[in-house]
Amino acid sequence: xxxxxxxxxxxxxxxxxxxxxxxxxxxxxxxxxxxxxxxxxxxxxxxxxxxxxxxxxxxxxxxxxxxxxxxxxxxxxxxxxxxxxxxxxxxxxxxxxxxxxxxxxxxxxxxxxxxxxxxxxxxxxxxxxxxxxxxxxxxxxxxxxxxxxxxxxxxxxxxxxxxxxxxxxxxxxxxxxxxxxxxxxxxxxxxxxxxxxxxxxxxxxxxxxxxxxxxxxxxxxxxxxxxxxxxxxxxxxxxxxxxxxxxxxxxxxxxxxxxxxxxxxxxxxxxxxxxxxxx
Length: 279
Prior knowledge:
Layout: H1 3-23, H2 25-29, H3 34-45, H4 50-57, H5 63-75, H6 82-90, H7 97-110, H8 116-122, H9 128-137, H10 147-156, H11 160-169, H12 176-185, H13 191-205, H14 213-222, H15 245-249, H16 271-275
């Protein structure tokens, strides 16, 4: 069906949809061809095909196409297949920062614990949005080598967004040095950093003393060696895109369930507790 035919058919279907609404949702379900129309409309006017996205991701002349192709592939259900993960790795040092950022985001979602090294390198990128993607990716991949660069980012990065993302990522690591860094960050001038540090402190310790750094320091000094015995499980929640126009008009369909929280790659339920032996 070409676009002109789809427009004509679409107007007819929308008219039937309006009539169906007057008759109730059960009538809408029975409109012939409506499901197929909505599906075709999404594919024709929506995102490129996987083959087109893959070609764009490898386009050597157009960074915008590379970025878009990588972003579309990484957001797809098949975006974690090995052939695509290898692509993200190879393009993580692309000359264009938007492409680097897209690859770092993709590795954060689909990478293995070894891919933390790509994110660790990117957290020192000259572009703040690339550093932010790296810190956000390290919320999803657990690796001890990430502790030092995340700590440095929380204390020194000029971007508050990067500092806040680093504070969230540090919530995986029950170490006294991390605890001290998060307590200091409660005095950050940006509230998003304060809130992120407070959240990580609550996860690491199982306690909540608000955002007053003095209260946290007093508690930590009074309970040495017991800092992490009530540690909570660290998780991250996958992003779910809001419904598009054609999703919203398909009112007869039940909304898909939201994504469930996940444990970072490389971290099981016991790793964090074992690391706490430093304190």
